[in-house]
Amino acid sequence: MSLFDLNADGQAVTIAEIGPPFRKVTLGGRDRPEQPVTVGGRSRSIQTWYPGTQAASVQHMGTEEAPITLNGWFQDPIAVVAGRGPVAQQALLEGIKIGGGLCQFVWGDRIIRTGRVVETAYAIHKHNKVRYTITFAVDSSNEAIALSPKPSIPGVQAAFAEALDAAVAAAVAAVSAVRVVKTLVGVVK
Known about the structure:
The chain is an alpha+beta fold. It is 28% helix and 40% strand. It has helices spanning 77-81, 86-99, 156-188; strands at residues 2-6, 13-17, 24-27, 37-48, 57-65, 68-74, 103-107, 111-126, 129-141. It has a 6-stranded antiparallel sheet, covered by helices on one side. The protein has a 3-stranded antiparallel sheet with strand order 1-4-5, with no helix packed on it. A hairpin with an 8-residue loop joins strand 4 and strand 5. The protein is elongated and about 90 Å long. Mean pLDDT is 80; it is low at 1-7 and 145-150.
């Protein structure tokens, strides 16, 4: 189940180790992952039905993020000349995966996750053209996406909205009355 499909065209993906040896893979330019990339997860909740109640008691226990799978090509000819081509990228990713260290996954300014590179696969076509698949297992997310950050009680919000609308209407009427009085006082003078 996906939260959304991300189309972050033009933005590089970085996977960087949080601890030593602080290796970092940047998937940008022609190495950028194919799109869309599915990012998602599920809410972990415990629902309990107590005797005598018509509504369940629900305790939200956080979220469980789904792994992120990236597919793409290491095929940057300029990077090969500079010694950072497909073989170097592949070796760097393998080192991060084998090390098993905690990493930060960053794509643009919207997607930031903490986790580990748990699976990689490479289809080697040429020394400068390698198809990759990277699976990043997510431990945590720093995106606190909450549509309703405060608890909602059915009916109370609607009643509050009606009362607020009535108060605003009364304030507008009072301002209009003051303007009329000021105009009349100005005419009388």
